[in-house]
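Much of what follows relies on a compact textual record of a protein's fold. A complete example follows; check for yourself that the lines match position by position.
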Amino acid sequence: MIDTHAHLQGLEGGADSAIEEAAEAGVGRIVCVGDSPELAQEAIDLSRSHPGVFATVGLHPHRADSWDDSVRASLDRLLEDPSVVAVGECGLDYFRERASRSAQATAFAGQVVLAEKHRKPLVIHTREAAEDTLAVLRNARTDVILHCFSLPEHLDEVVERGWYVSFAGNVTYPSASELAEAARLVPAELLLLETDCPYLSPVPNRGKPNRPSWVLATLHAVAAMRGVDPGELGEQVETNAARVFAFP
């Protein structure tokens, strides 16, 4: 099994122990998200120490006010590392708006260019910004992964465009009926699973800091929603991840 989106940096108990714990549970691969130049370098360093860990390089929309030529150049350089499999997480967040909308738009557009240049998929964060996010992605010439999927009302378009849909632990919450329905309906070949650790711990660990190993709880929940064997679904998710991330 694979955790396709984890923030290993700063995890309680350290990243090394979380990676070992995940491997013992059967989670042999983890995509570690670097959503600033500094965190991206940490993700790359972890990938060098752990063969099953891969890195992303990007700038989170919360940090978009820091986007400038220097940040763009740093991300461009980091994307050359062979352990890097995606650009992001990047996108738009109009819920918290920790950066101005204009800065978010500029940083998002710049990262689309980087993804196209390096032929890497985009890992997308979008919150209460669906229309503006989709408007950018419709013109992106690279694969798209909708991290912590939050656009069930747009699932038809997402599927039509062949974008990947990644579900985090919140799909297991009793109140998440629309997400659960999306998890049931999305074509198997576009389905990914993630923890987004340390956030969004799945039932039965909701309220605790999330761990990469707990992606297995989300796997079992989504398998039940789809009426399929968890082992078969896990193999499908691994196949999908290998396709979109093009693991070295």
Summary: DSSP finds nine helices and eight strands in the chain. The domain at 2-245 is CATH 3.20.20.140 (TIM Barrel). The two ends are 17 Å apart (CA to CA). The mean pLDDT is 97.
